[in-house]
Design a protein that fits this description.
Layout (H helix, E strand, L loop, with lengths): L2 H10 L3 E5 L5 E5 L8 H76 L3 H24 L2 E4 L17 E4 L7
Antiparallel strand pairs: 1-2, 3-4
């Protein structure tokens, strides 16, 4: 056996020594003096390779299981997103139909408004302004009794002066 083979065997089998035999070749001896044959390390190497292969196989199986779990999670999310997309598409179709209907109504109203004369527009604006002013006067004239937040416990209350209630106009302003 040459030196490289002997050193390789000695490294693989703990507690061994490399020495020369009576013919000048290298041999590997155990601590008890027995010889280590060259085929034993091969069986040890096979065992080590089997263990390493088993470790890699277990690691592969774990990673494959994780991959399948992740894949399943993403497929579930994808299915949910596809359902959401379908719902949004149906909503979009509904809204587009409503939008086209509103556009048609707007065009019809614009045609009707185009038929109104300028004198009629002025009369409508004046009537609208008068109605707005009358509504404002009516709301200002309304009177409501409101319960104060202080419930009459604050003697100097700015709203009720300690009475617990106050009178307000139609806009909610204290009078």
């Amino acid at each position: 056996m040459d030196y490289r083979d002997a050193i390789e065997i000695a490294r693989k089998v703990p507690g061994t020594l490399v020495t020369r035999d009576e013919y000048g070749g290298f041999i590997v001896r155990r601590a008890d003096g027995s010889l280590v044959e060259g085929h034993e390390p091969a069986s040890d190497e096979i065992t080590l390779l089997r263990q390493e292969n088993e470790r890699y196989q277990n690691n592969y199986d774990e990673l494959f299981a994780q991959l399948n779990q992740t894949k399943q999670n993403y497929l579930t999310k994808l299915t949910g997103l596809e359902e959401t997309i379908d719902q949004l598409k149906s909503s979009l179709n509904t809204l587009q139909a409503e939008h086209s209907s509103a556009i048609n109504n707007l065009k019809e109203l614009e045609k009707k408004l185009a038929k109104v004369s300028n004198d009629e527009w002025e009369r409508i604006k004046i009537a609208d302004e008068q109605a707005r002013l009358e509504n404002a006067k009516a709301r200002k004239a309304e009177r409501h009794i409101q319960q104060c937040a202080c419930l009459g416990e604050v003697e100097n209350c700015a709203r009720c002066n300690g009475r617990g209630s106050y009178t307000a106009d139609g806009y909610g302003n204290p009078i």
